[in-house]
C-alpha cells in the first residue's frame, strides 16, 4: 500500500487523483509545513524538506516532487494510461510535467514566501509585494506559454486523461491562474474544467476544494 503525505488543497491532490485512477490502495497522512501536527515529524523522517506531496512506496522507498511521482505512477501502472503509450507523445507529456514543475510550481513558491528569495526582505512588506507581483505576472505568462505549446488532443496527455492533466488542473488552481486563463487562453481554461469533471477526478477535487455553499 502506498502512503501519501499531503494536505487538503495542496499539490497532493494530483497524486491522490492519480492513485485513484490507477486503482492502487493508498492511505493519506494529512500534514504540511504550514499546518504542522504530530505526523509532520514522520514526514520529516522520510523527506527532510518536509514537502507535500511525498509518497512512500510499497518497498519503503520515498518519492517527492509531484512531477516525479506522477512519472513513476505512470510507469508502474501502464494500463491506467497516465502516460501515453506512443514514445513521442510520452516525451511531450514528460516535457509538460517538468514545464509545470520548473516554471509554474516554482513561481508559486516565490509568491507564497517572497521573503525567502530576497535578502533582508523579511518584515519589508513593500519589497515582498513587489516580488509577489513580479512572480505572479511571470506565472501567468508561463501558463500562456503552456497553453500554446500543449494543446488538448483531446486531453493534455493525449488520447487519454493522464498525469499532465492532473498536475495542470491542480497547479492552475493557485495565484489567479484560472482567472487569467479564462481571459487569455479560454481553450485551456475549458480543458481544465473538463479534467475536474472527469470520473475519478471530480470526487478527489471536491474533497480538496469543496463547492462553496450558496448564501441563503
Q: Give, in order, the helices and strands.
A: EHEHEEHHHHHHH
CATH architecture of the largest domain: Up-down Bundle
Low-confidence stretches: none
What level of helicity do the residues show? 40-55%
Provide the number of structural domains. Answer: 2
Largest sheet: 4 strands, mixed
Strand content: 5-15%
Walk across the major sheet and give the strand order.
2-1-3-4
Mean pLDDT: 95
CATH topology of the largest domain: Glutathione S-transferase Yfyf (Class Pi), Chain A, domain 2
CATH class placement of the largest domain: Mainly Alpha
What do these coordinates show?
The chain is an alpha+beta fold and 216 residues long. The chain folds into two domains: 2-80, Glutaredoxin (3-Layer(aba) Sandwich); 87-198, Up-down Bundle (Glutathione S-transferase Yfyf (Class Pi), Chain A, domain 2). It is built from nine helices and four strands. It has a four-stranded mixed sheet, with helices on both faces. Helix 1 links the parallel strand 1 (2-6) and strand 2. Helix 3 runs antiparallel to helix 4 (87-112). 37% of the residues are buried. The model has no long low-confidence stretch (mean pLDDT 95).
List the SSEs and their pairings:
Blueprint: E1 2-6, H1 12-22, E2 26-30, H2 39-46, E3 54-56, E4 62-64, H3 66-76, H4 87-112, H5 125-149, H6 163-171, H7 177-184, H8 186-197, H9 202-208
Parallel strand pairs: 1-2
Antiparallel strand pairs: 1-3, 3-4
Amino acid at each position: 500500500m502506498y502512503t501519501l503525505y499531503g494536505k487538503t488543497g495542496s499539490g497532493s491532490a494530483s497524486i491522490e487523483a492519480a492513485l485513484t485512477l490507477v486503482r492502487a490502495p493508498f492511505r493519506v497522512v494529512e500534514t504540511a509545513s504550514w499546518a504542522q501536527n504530530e505526523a509532520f515529524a514522520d514526514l520529516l523522517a522520510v523527506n527532510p524538506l518536509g514537502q507535500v506531496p511525498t509518497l512512500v512506496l510499497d518497498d519503503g522507498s520515498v518519492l517527492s516532487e509531484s512531477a516525479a511521482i506522477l512519472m513513476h505512477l505512470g510507469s508502474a501502472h501502464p494500463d491506467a494510461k497516465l502516460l501515453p503509450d506512443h514514445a513521442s507523445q510520452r516525451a511531450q507529456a514528460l516535457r509538460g510535467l517538468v514545464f509545470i514543475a520548473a516554471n509554474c510550481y516554482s513561481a508559486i513558491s516565490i509568491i507564497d514566501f517572497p521573503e525567502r528569495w530576497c535578502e533582508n526582505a523579511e518584515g519589508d512588506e513593500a519589497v515582498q509585494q513587489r516580488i509577489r507581483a513580479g512572480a505572479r505576472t511571470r506565472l501567468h505568462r508561463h501558463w500562456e506559454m503552456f497553453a500554446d505549446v500543449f494543446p488538448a488532443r483531446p486531453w493534455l496527455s493525449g488520447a487519454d486523461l493522464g498525469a499532465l492533466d492532473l498536475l495542470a488542473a491542480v497547479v492552475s488552481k493557485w495565484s489567479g491562474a484560472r482567472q487569467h486563463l479564462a481571459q487569455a487562453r479560454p481553450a485551456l481554461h475549458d480543458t481544465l474544467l473538463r479534467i475536474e469533471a472527469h470520473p475519478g477526478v471530480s470526487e478527489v477535487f471536491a474533497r480538496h476544494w469543496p463547492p462553496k455553499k450558496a448564501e441563503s
